[in-house]
Specification:
With 317 residues, the chain is mainly α. It has one domain. The protein has 13 helices and two strands; from the N terminus they run αααααααββαααααα. It has a two-stranded antiparallel ribbon with strand order 1-2. The longest helix has 27 residues. The chain starts with a helix and ends with a helix.
């Protein structure tokens, strides 16, 4: 039985959460050895240029309008990553910061409805409060204390949600009206779109890093270990992760599949337990189960159809 585009998109989003969680490990190792904005600039520039080289023919064929749309997505994403990096540097309690940033997943369908006129299924609205509760249990074990530095996480969450919506609409096929009044279908190729977006993010974060961070200590103490973490983050967490995410977004203009990305902090917690020997409390474990419950609620209808088809196929044998 062939998978629908929605099912393919869901599976790709699931893969994105794993790649993103693995990237957290690489990023944490790297930012202990270099300034965070400089790290972001290098990984996104390298990731963007790598994809541009792989799909240079697609990039060359982009129209001026397509380039503007891709750059606009990259500018929003670049500002979001910059706010997140500064918040990570200034925040004293990362649990609250992780919770605030993860709220971007909850904000995506809301923003899609308010600003893009996109209708959302009832299952999405039912899943969002459950997802918020799971994120709170996973991240806010010590309570919620809003700090000045965490305002950056709040801004980042809104910008991440806006980026996701813009990227979804840029990646999906759309009707375009030419100057002569004719209408045709147009779609920005996934590799080209991702390459332009990532390169734009690299330019934004490099500019801010140049203004705010010292570069010389990093270059004076550059090691093969640091180079390894940067390369791993570039290949897995940047070029690979955002290519797969844009591919998933190109399969459906609907944004409710983004709720699957709420799995990312679950995988981060599990990987942190394995890699950094961090422990997970009973409350955090309940948070993980609550997040899985939110995903089941959000995707109950297609899951029910899949189970029904599977059982009917087995019954006919």
């Amino acid at each position: 039985m062939a998978l629908s585009n929605t099912a393919k998109s869901d599976l790709l989003f699931f893969l994105v959460t794993l790649l993103a969680a693995i990237s957290w490990m690489f990023s944490k190792e790297a930012v202990m050895l270099m300034p965070p904005l400089l790290f972001m600039a290098i990984r996104f520039l390298l990731g963007g240029l790598l994809l541009a080289a792989a799909g240079y023919r697609e990039v060359q064929r982009l129209s001026a309008a397509q380039c503007r749309r891709a750059i606009r997505v990259g500018l929003v994403f670049g500002l979001a990553m910059s706010c997140w990096s500064i918040g990570l540097h200034r925040a004293e309690h990362l649990g609250e910061g992780a919770f605030l940033t993860s709220l971007a997943v909850v904000l995506v369908p809301v923003m899609a409805r308010l600003f893009f006129g996109e209708t959302q299924p009832g299952s999405t609205w039912a899943a969002l409060p459950v997802a918020m509760a799971g994120l709170a249990l996973l991240s806010l074990e010590n309570g919620f204390r809003l700090e000045a530095g965490q305002l950056y996480f709040i801004v980042a969450a809104f910008l991440f949600a806006l980026y996701f919506n813009l990227n979804t609409h840029a990646a999906a096929t759309r009707n375009v009206t030419a100057r002569d009044g004719t209408t045709h279908r147009e779609k920005i190729p996934v590799v080209a779109l991702t390459a332009v977006v990532l390169t734009t993010v690299g330019v934004v974060t490099a500019t801010l890093s140049l203004l705010l961070e010292p570069w010389q200590p990093t270059f004076d103490n550059f090691t093969l270990v640091l180079a390894g973490w940067i390369l791993a983050s570039t290949l897995v967490g940047t070029a690979g992760r955002f290519f797969v995410q844009t591919w998933a977004q190109s399969l459906s203009v609907q944004s409710h599949g983004v709720v699957i990305l709420v799995l990312e902090p679950v995988w981060v917690a599990l990987i942190a337990a394995l890699w950094f020997a961090e422990t997970m409390s009973a409350l955090q474990f309940v948070g993980c189960l609550t997040i899985f419950a939110a995903l089941v609620i959000n995707r109950w209808s297609p899951m029910k159809r899949w189970l029904k088809n599977l059982l009917s196929e087995r019954g006919s044998r």
